[in-house]
Amino acid sequence: MISESNLSNLSAQFMRPPEQVMRLDRMGSSHQTRLSFMRSLIRRMSKENWKFECLRRDIDSDGFGVSVYAVTTPLRTYSLIAFTQDIPPKKRTDRVIAEVWDATFNLFDGIPTQADIDYLANNTPKQEDGRYRPSELVLARANKSLRIFEHVISTLAKGNQPDIELLSSVGYLMRTTAVYGSGKFGCADRAKIADREECKGAFQIELLAVYLIRWFTIDLVEYLARKRGGNKAVKFEPHIRQFIGVGNATGLGMAPFLLKHPVLIHNWVVAKESALAKVRSMETPLKGTLEKFTQSLIQVSQHLREWCVEDEVQTTRIDRLKDEIGSLSNWCSDQINLMKPYPWNGIYQYVEDRFSLECQEMVVSLIIEPHGPLVDDLAETMSSVSTPKLVADMPLSQLKGIVEDYYVWATTIDFTLTESQHHFWYYSEDKLEPRFGSRDVDEGSEQEMPLAIGRDAHELNHALLSTSDEMLVGEFVLSFPQFRHIIRRIQNTLQRPYSEVQDNLLDESMRPLDLLRFKLAFFGASKFDPKSDLWTRISMYQGAPMPDQLSDPDHDKWFFPVIPKQVI
Amino acid sequence: MATEQLTISLNEVLFFFTRAGFGVNAPIGIAEDFARSNMWIAENGFDPSSCSIEALNNLDSHTSDLAVELEHSDTQVHFVNPNNVYLSSLIASVSVVDWINVGSRNVELIVKNVDSPLLVIAAMGANQCSDWQAIWLDESNYEYLVNFTEPGVWEMVSSNTQPIELSKGGNMIIRPLVETKKYPANAVLRKFVTIEEKEKILQTGVKVGEHWQGIYDYFSRCLVKSTAESRASGAGAGIVDTD
Question: Considering only CB atoms, which chain B residues are within 8 Å of A537?
Answer without folding.
Answer: 243
